[in-house]
């Protein structure tokens, strides 16, 4: 992707070509770095089980599969049809995953409309995608995430820190948008030289407070 010709169309074509050239462009299935990062993200989620998760930018479905084990329903989405095909294959290979729906969504315009509280997500996971958004798109995504979060729900973000050519926004800038979002409380801030991991909720209580012993 050429950052100077950063139209939505160019961005879509860039990711589509990546997944056509390689089924696992970031080696999320091979690298210990990726497996450990996924395990950390999952360990930082404050609830054991979730009712309905939304994972935009799901890529080839590796994190989707892990989320599916914690959630009654998962809506996993990506702008690349090839990524969605690979995610479907990954889910199929792992066994029945009828509670996972895959959809083509391009953020921010395709963020799902959630009306009644029953439709809202109690988990939203944004992993390694938000630095591809412009500042205006990020602001909209943060707003949409807060608006579609069920009471007591969780928003988790995880992003590589070092600059790279296709990145539009810095990881600090991306996580700050959620840190300063009205109505969200930071539950976890995990910082390493390689990545930032943040967890927010509209319920400020800690895990121990929610379980009633703090
Ligand atoms: C680096 S991969 C991350 C995949 C996965 N979330 C993970 O953490 O391993 C980024 C993914 O975001 C998708 N993506 C990028 N911009 C997007 C947008 N505006 N809307 C939806 N998906 C997008 C790409 O197609 C790609 O699959």
TrEMBL record:
Upper classification of the source organism reads: Bacteria, Pseudomonadati, Pseudomonadota, Betaproteobacteria, Burkholderiales
Record-linked Gene3D superfamilies? Vaccinia Virus protein VP39
Q: Which SUPFAM superfamilies match?
A: S-adenosyl-L-methionine-dependent methyltransferases
UniProt GO molecular function: methyltransferase activity
Q: Where is the Methyltransferase domain?
A: 56-153
The record ties this protein, via PANTHER family, to:
METHYLTRANSFERASE, SLR1071 PROTEIN
Q: Which Pfam families match?
A: Methyltransf_25
Which named protein is this?
Nodulation protein S (NodS)
Xref: InterPro entries: Methyltransf_25, SAM-dependent_MTases_sf
